[in-house]
Specification:
Blueprint: H1 2-10, E1 20-24, H2 29-40, E2 44-49, E3 62-65, H3 71-78, E4 83-86, H4 94-97, H5 101-121, E5 126-132, H6 163-181, E6 185-190, E7 193-194, H7 207-217, E8 223-227, E9 233-234, E10 237-238, H8 239-250, E11 257-260, E12 266-267, H9 268-279, E13 284-288, H10 303-309, H11 317-334
Parallel strand pairs: 1-2, 1-4, 2-3, 4-5, 5-6, 6-11, 7-10, 8-13
Antiparallel strand pairs: 9-12
The structure holds nicotinamide-adenine-dinucleotide.
Length: about 350
Amino acid sequence: MGRIYYLYFERGIEMNSKIKVLVTGAGGFIGHHLVKYLKNKGYWVRGVDIKEPQYEKTSADEFVLLDLREFDNCIKACRGVQEVYQLAADMGGIGYISSSHALVLRNNALINLHMLEAARVNNIQNYLYTSSACVYPQYLQQDAKVKMLKEEDAYPADSEPGYGWEKLFSELASQYYNEDYRLKTHIVRFHNIFGPLGAYEGGREKSPAAICRKVALAKDGEKIEVWGDGKQTRSYCYIDDCVEGIYSLMRSDYFKPLNLGQDRLISVDELVDIACKSAGKKIVKEYDLSKPQGVRGRNSDNTRLREVLKWEPVVSLEEGIKRTYKWIESELRAKGRI
Ligand code: NAD
């Protein structure tokens, strides 16, 4: 039956309502947005996570609380679906991942090995693994004016301790399942995805959300704390582009790792300035050099992304930060904190 659905796709006729998909990590930031996106496309969606989405009710047809470190739970999660988007991971901002190497590596390796095997046992037709730019070698990211990172730069490997090494290992595991068992495993390497409905406090938030929160809580002219010296650089990709890219990759016949991010290099100082502009505030930056800042510079080379998907992210950083700032500010206001 599955093959028939795919023939409809090839003819451009959307029969998505007949396809059942699983989104793991559906209680998290990207997974929650992806569930909404897939529902809008007409899919039947099962969401799985160890927690419910924090800020908005899920739009999944079925939402199941399961710990995916357990193999039996991965089997249950994959039962009766044709496609799997594997987004479950123990992760957070640089503060969290740099202080929990053993825990993060163990939790994520268990989830990924068990999910791949459960997908194989359940004859899943299409599988997506969410990797990260943290797989790229640290020796290529020591300068703020970093060279854009191409997919093949991941080797010789020298990934981010803990989280990054596990991502690289699970990329390989995904590729082996493709080669040995013909499981169609797609591998995406995200570069700093941000947007509304993501963590903005509590330790797991990423820099764009943390900066928007600090700016929202500060009064005009006040100081905010910035981790590092503000000169470290990154590229940032808005969530709507991220889910669009994930979906196109799943529909492609491309099975090697692929970057998904923006290729505009921005310093943390510039990111703070953009958030201040959205807020209409002037803020004084106070640098804390004792805080972790990760690699010195990191940027995505999108050459392969353009070749494979005939597409690249379109939402500007200014627009993305404007929408994210607005959401975080409204959350803090609703909690009576501003
Ligand atoms: P997130 O933390 O918001 O979502 C991950 C979800 O996985 C969480 O809801 C968490 O509860 C769930 N989870 C953790 N352990 C679990 C378990 N044992 N069983 C079931 N669920 C479990 O993170 P996100 O930003 O939405 O990231 C999604 C994926 O993208 C992850 O694989 C992450 O490593 C990857 N990624 C994200 C970024 C980014 O910038 N957000 C960058 C690179 C890679």
